[in-house]
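Dear colleague,

Following up on Tuesday's group meeting, I ran the structure prediction for the two-component complex that the binding team flagged. I've pasted the input sequences exactly as they went in, so you can double-check that nothing got truncated or mislabelled along the way. The structure tokens for the whole assembly follow below. Feel free to forward this to whoever is handling the docking comparison.

Inputs:
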Amino acid sequence: MGDQSNSPSSSIDSSSHPALCSTSSSFQTRRDLLSTDLKLGLGLSTSALHGSSSKQREQLSHWPPIKPLLRSTLEEKVHRSHSKTFFVKVYMEGLPIGRKLDLFSHNGYDSLMRTLRRMFRTTIICPDTSRVPPEKAHVLTYEDKEGDWMMVGDVPWELFLTTVKRLKITRADKC
Amino acid sequence: MTYFPEEVVEHIVDFLGSHGDRNAVSTVCKAWYQVDRLSRRSVFVGNCYAIRPERVVTRFPEMKSLTVKGKPHFADFNLVPYDWGGFAQPWIEAAARGCPGLEELRLKRMVITDDDLELLSCSFPNFKSLVLVSCEGFSTDGLAEIATYCRGLRELDLQENEVEDHGHQWLSCFPDSCTSLVSLNFACLKGEVNASALERLVARCPNLRSLKLNHSIPVESLNKILARAPHLVDLGTGSFTIDNRSETYHRLINSFFRCKSLRSLSGFWDASPFCLQAVYPICANLTVLNLSYAPAIQSADLTKLVGFCFKLQKLWVLDCIGDKGLVVVASTCKELQELRVFPSDVYGAGITAVTEEGLVAISSGCPKLNSLLYFCYQMTNAALTTVAKNCPHFTRFRLCILEPEKPDPVTNQPLDEGFGAIVRSCKNLRRLSVSGLLTDQVFLYIGMYAERLEMLSIAFAGDSDKGMVYVLNGCKNLRKLEIRDCPFGDAALLKDVAKYETMRSLWMSSCDVTLGGCKSLAAKMPRLNVEIINENDGTSESKENLSDQHKLVLCQQFTSVSNDIMFTSNDPDVCRRVRL
């Protein structure tokens, strides 16, 4: 997956944006907890199996009580073996025909940006960059479950996956 | 007995293995205190904040082995914030100043940095053994320091640590002159490790008996390593995936066949089912088998493998083995002493992997069983009663029903009677974890019968303060109590505050305890270290109720026999932490 961008202002620099770091810290941060808990929401959970009055496992944090190494081993296996896909539509402003992209085949914002850059041949800017966006640059936005259009990259990747409905690449000077 | 030469006392005291016994000896009189302190080689500190490192080092100048534990147990489940503490630095610094003869350091749930590892590697010329369990704060750079400077290192054992990956060079830092390794475990490392450097290291360490690889070491390397180290007793495989029935695979079978001393197997990262067959030749010799990181292997293959392991004493496995698989274990592994069955379904998809049936089968087939950790979908009182009857020798019994507050599915009753049967029958029970639907009654039973109980873990159980009070009043030997999500409040917390001085620690989170209650406790017991961990990002210090973000941690602080300066906290000012 060639990831050299075409222009010098390739702005997706994972070191400048904490949410884009796929392994932001090896230490157990709250973000790691959050991602674990939210992954529960993405899983195959069939909550109907549990009685309505009982505590659902999905709502509980830090449950079942297993060590992080085991938890990450099991989650990796699920990701790999289920080959679940999550295709979303991607439109670029000015182009009437959109594309479709499988978000589950990416493990973070870095990977997503690289693919989009390749698909649409444009520079996509990270929202935290303090540089003035060049004229031709774009930003990546998404429509969330509530119907609002938001900038991609602000929330942890796993949270993003639970709320994104579709993507749109818009001109930077419009945001 | 009043006049006994010190040499004789020392000789006798040397036979005492347990720290508890030696501690008791040291309190008899000043002379015996002196004998113990000068002859104690192995020092155990169960809670790093109970005593200052300098005190330990001054008291035991001939110390050769130091074990220190940091964070509370629930830190394993992410309930303790990263910056809580448990820093190794003051311990290593104190030991470097006062005990340069230190040979072994064992740390559990502590934060150790690369700088600490560097200091360690240069401060102890006879250093032989470093064991880090569930620690964090360091990277492979720190490991490079240990490899480079610890001449004569015998053991580097990294168990389930969070290690930042700064590259694979660290292993190459073991000099060519290093031939002393007996035990090397880097299974928890996430990054690449230089396989050829490892092969050379193994080749020059003829005493190597225990080797645990991480997932980055391919099977081809494993073949070469086993060829060089056929005397291995304990092996953790690296990646255990082979693409097809290739040459590599056949060589692997031969390699294992030659390892006549192999008794313990673990690893199997990414293991695919048919690769397991390579292990069949040595199954008959295995006493320890850990398959808990091999989620791709399903019941049929697990069952087949275990069916060959009739000398097995310790089995750790995922619940995909199923009840049927456990029946096979029960009929094969008559020497089984410890069983751990971990959940493989973390998403709550309701896959019913193991139930009470598997446990009952094990209990009737494995009479020597004394240690259990069992994650299951459901449990019944009848099953627990049967298990209690079949296995009265349990010292550790931990049951985790995956759905909290789940009753006995057959009778719809709480599981009070079942656990009651366990504590009544198992007179030597030292550690217990309860789960499922439980009322205060179960705690009445625990208080009444669990006389030897030292550690109790409770989650989503009980009806009222009475539950906690039964436990505190009853269990004379209780040392560690950890409670989450139970309706125990200030009345329970404050009922018998003197009890806490006999315990190592108490943890309460998401219970009904208030800030006022904790302050009251701290005021009544100034020698207790009472601490609230507040994970709110803002201002909630004036809140009277501890919300879900607050946790109470309490531990005893020791004073020495001669009542000298008490330990006062000089921790760095960790944010969001309130010491009362």
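The two ends of chain B are 45 Å apart (CA to CA).

Cheers,
M.
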